[in-house]
Amino acid sequence: MTQLALVIDLNVCVGCHACVTSCKEWNTSGWAGPMADEEPYGKDPSGTFFNRVQMYEVGEFPATETVHFPKSCLHCEEPPCVPVCPTGASYKREDNGVVLVDYDKCIGCKYCSWSCPYGVRELDEYQKVMKKCTLCIDRISDETKPEAERKPACVLSCPTSARLFGDVHDPDSEVSVAIRENAGYQLMPEWGTKPANHYLPRRKTRIQIFEDELIRADNPLKKEEAVGEIIGDTIDDVAM
Amino acid sequence: MHPAFSVIFLTTLIGAAQGLFLALVTAQVYAVDGILPAQEPGFYVQGSFIALVLLALGLVAAAFHLGKLEYFITRAWRGMSQWRTSWLSRELIALPIFMGLVFLYFAAHYAGLHEPLFTIGGKLAVDATLLIGIVGAVMAFVLYISTAMIYASVRFMQEWHSPLTVFNYILFGLASGFVLAAAFAATVGSDLVGFFTGWALIFTIASAVTRGASLYRNARIEHKSNLQTAIGVRHPRIRQKSMGFMGGSFNTREFFHHASDSAYDMMRYAFIALVFVVPVILLLLDAPLLAFIAQYIGLLAERWYFFAEAKHPQNLYYQSIA
Nearest CB to A191: which of B156, B233, B235? Predict the structure, then answer.
């Protein structure tokens, strides 16, 4: 069975929010209706987003690091938000594992958001239905698009390629290899929700260099040392 | 959690209505056996009418919990479809069934269907009103459990995820219902005031024990999630610098109570006084109507606190504006 998911490389993400804006642009323009904004130019702008990028400071100053942390629905393999829905509006697709909300059935009771430990469901203040990341379902399943464009908007827009998209159940997929070889992990594993999305950890890039590799023993410039100290004015000193 | 007034009123109103109905049916069952004096049919008619009014008010409050009021007509019926997995769906089924049974109970007493249908042991005469009452009583408990399990089944809210939540909902409902029954009996001059008052005291004190136990448990609760597991970075010192936006969002509105620490503490003291202490004193002073008013206001505070004290793990992601 296919389980589509994102793999987000925290070592690569620079926190530019390109995924946030491209997500909003694609999904607010689609068939499912706008993602409402309230007071977008006011003092307290608020709106529906499927994707947010947060920032965390790790460590004690001055030894601190900034972790940019993109956050969207993790498309759990055991989604706790789905069985609690009283109307059946919340569901997980059998064919590709994407967790979706049927906006025509949702009554806006918010119970699913209570049952999501990650806080990735947001009630749309205009339509008054629960919304969440669809993995751009209308885009990835659109066969009129070229294969290379059948990816979520956030993945296509990421300038550093921090976001990978694919089937985490296929052991040879790009995402599965990335998870396996780069220590991919899940968020809040303690709840047993089995998120399909994975994160790749921050890692230090270290290269081993030996002293004799830094200083070339037969460097011809070293010969100049034999000339010794320059005495008297140089040509620059006497220049008019 | 943000305490929503729709749910605060819904749960307190229907809880009291179920308790009042159970008080009426209990009195009727005891009267059949001659343990308690039989009442005029008008007693049950008026009593179940009060329960119906409270249930209807609860339903109005519930409608305000929907995203839009129009969903009550256009979509709410779908809420009954997922009863296999969702306690909310089960409540949405149990509530109208219970309301229907209370109405039938009211109508049967009003129509005077007191002809015994059969007798048990040649002594206990069972009529239509009693049959409806007993089925309704079972349904009242089904509804109590469904309502409570909506909260108790959410494992992410560790403050709620406990059998104590179910006991609290049942006992608060019974306590307020029996206090209301005592007030009603006193108002119509029935001789059941003492019976209802006695059970009202028992349920109020029992609810003080279970709610006290949950307050104790919640004050010492160890939350499963922390910032380390939330973002998957193993470092003892992590601070959020930005939650990705500067205004509010659904996540900052729905999952925080936004009250000051002192208001939060005041609410706890208020409900402890108004739900337990004041009603017990007023019941002992033979003032059941005042006791009900005090306890109902206290239960509103209790329900507010119930929501406010639940800490959702998603809040870990929403610690710092910027």
Answer: B156
